[in-house]
What we know:
By secondary structure, the protein is α/β, with parallel strands linked by helices. 49% of the residues lie in helices and 9% in strands. It is built from 26 helices and 15 strands. β8, α11 and β9 form a beta-alpha-beta unit. The longest helix has 23 residues. It starts with 12 loop residues before the first strand and ends in an 8-residue tail after the last helix.
Amino acid sequence: MTDPQHSKDRPWVMRTYAGHSTAAASNALYRKNLAKGQTGLSVAFDLPTQTGYDPDSPLSRGEVGKVGVPVPHLGEMRRLFEDIPLTAMNTSMTINATAMWLLAMYQVVAEEQNPELDPTEVAAQLAGTTQNDIIKEYLSRGTYVFGPEHSLRLTADTIAYTVNQIPRWNPINICSYHLQEAGATPAQELAYALCTAIAVLDQVKASGQVSEEDFERVVGRISFFVNAGVRFVEETCKMRAFVQLWEEITRVRYGVTDPKMRRFRYGVQVNSLGLTEAQPENNVQRIVLEMLGVTLSKNARARAVQLPAWNEALGLPRPWDQQWSLRLQQVLAFESDLLEYEDIFEGSHVIEAKVAELVAGAKEEMDRVQSMGGAIAAVESGYMKSALVSAHAARRGRIEAGEEIIVGVNKFETTEPSPLTADLDGAIMAADPQAERSALDSLSAWKAERDEDEVKSALERLAADAKTEVNLMDATLAAVRAGATTGEWAGTLREVFGEFRAPTGVSGAVGAAEAGAELTAVRDRVKETGEQLGGRLRLLVGKPGLDGHSNGAEQVAVRARDAGFEVIYQGIRLTPEQIVAAAVAEDVHCVGLSILSGSHMELVPSVLTGLREAGLDDVPVIVGGIIPDSDGRALIEQGVAAVYTPKDFGLTEIMDGIVDVIRRANDLDETQD
């Protein structure tokens, strides 16, 4: 029973991150989730939409509708939000490189839903968030399109437009979430996210699109998207450190006088990196602990929370799994007394000391980045990426050494059979195999009905504006209304801005594996096998398709280098043909493919076919990723030499397995005498 002396705070916005297959299927899921008590939408877009490709692009093959919903044109945006009144909704869109384009489509759909209102009135009612943080894409997630300079311009244009035209919109959600997923320590997570915020605010200020009087409103609309790990005391302190540092930056650097405009506003997706394939039922308590880290402290409480599902390390969660995660939030918010009290950590010497430690560490790292010229310079030099790869390697090393315990993975591994995973294929949702065909048909029908001259004119205007300093939002809205597609909008800007390949961070990373007996033995096997084959063993690590989650590939590349392999790693977003060409050019002994987007059944066979056609059918292929058992068996039957999933956390063991694979492929003894 609520204490009458305590008024209960309003709970945070409750979301589930959702979107898959088709706009129609995602729309049905959204309406179901809203009916279950979800209070905001969080839209997941598929990789072609995120990276500016239409479903008919060669790079889109196998990726359509896999990790989110495909939205190649305005017609699909209409279907996505059918019967969902956008002027009454709070919508978060996880979109970065193409954020301006998706926001423009969202705005036009809202206008169409409210024909009786003037477009300016509609815009004034829209509430939500575009992630729009491109810097972290170069560091972790990989869905960038253009180089940092041009990407930051699109970000600043979107911010300036929304502050002036859509005042309730959060135009950027600066993401420390993906930094932690990429291995960032708490101090790095704080520092790199805040350096990103500084780079963005400085860019907006320099653009001259916002008056001095309105700049406080720009600062006030900046929001953050934060990760919360299982070390929930440390995570609580990290959030309090964020609040303290943001208060200081906005007050001292930007002279913001209104305390409301200095408020650190953030939403959370709790840590998916720590979710395990082994004993996945343990993920439920991990998610709860992670949620506590961002809700317990009233003075640093999240404004919106979305939780992953218990089975995300296995594959695509089902609606029931997402409902379970929503219910975790609802029990905490409505059954517990958490929201009835003031900040329960106020005056704690332990918390204050930890916050001070994190603040000091973050400031030291921020000073280092700023001395290099800021976040953009630290991206272009590869410094921040190498620092993250090194930090992640150190974490992997601690897990393998047993210094960092993961229950069910490197300790307490014995288990009773789990009824949750008795039917592994039934424990996750299969992506709709017809999603790609549906998207292609939709694209074809859309193009057949539009006015091509109008589209051409709109895209010519976009290209012309891109060559000047004018805000690109007006030209983007015109392209939406004319019927241009996602791929056409991004393709037009690619022609003006060019494309960009971010540093991988692997060459400058410090490997964390000490030369113990296990690694020394593998090094000896690598050296001996190379000598038997006439040279050093060469491993090609490839990421086919649009999946930008490169953490696993980077860690494999770093450990392989530590184990004595010559490593060829060209980064993300390669076609199967490019990977085959690299295998031929480098005369490799093994090809390792990393795919986490679910497109393995389309892309891996393409690589196998390409290798055969190139006369390299004797080069073994191994695959790593979130791959269901049935898919793994199918890949083995098609000729893959080995399949690794998140349960295979021992990188040195994987290196030993790669040596076995190479020896078998070359008819050498599988073990060393």
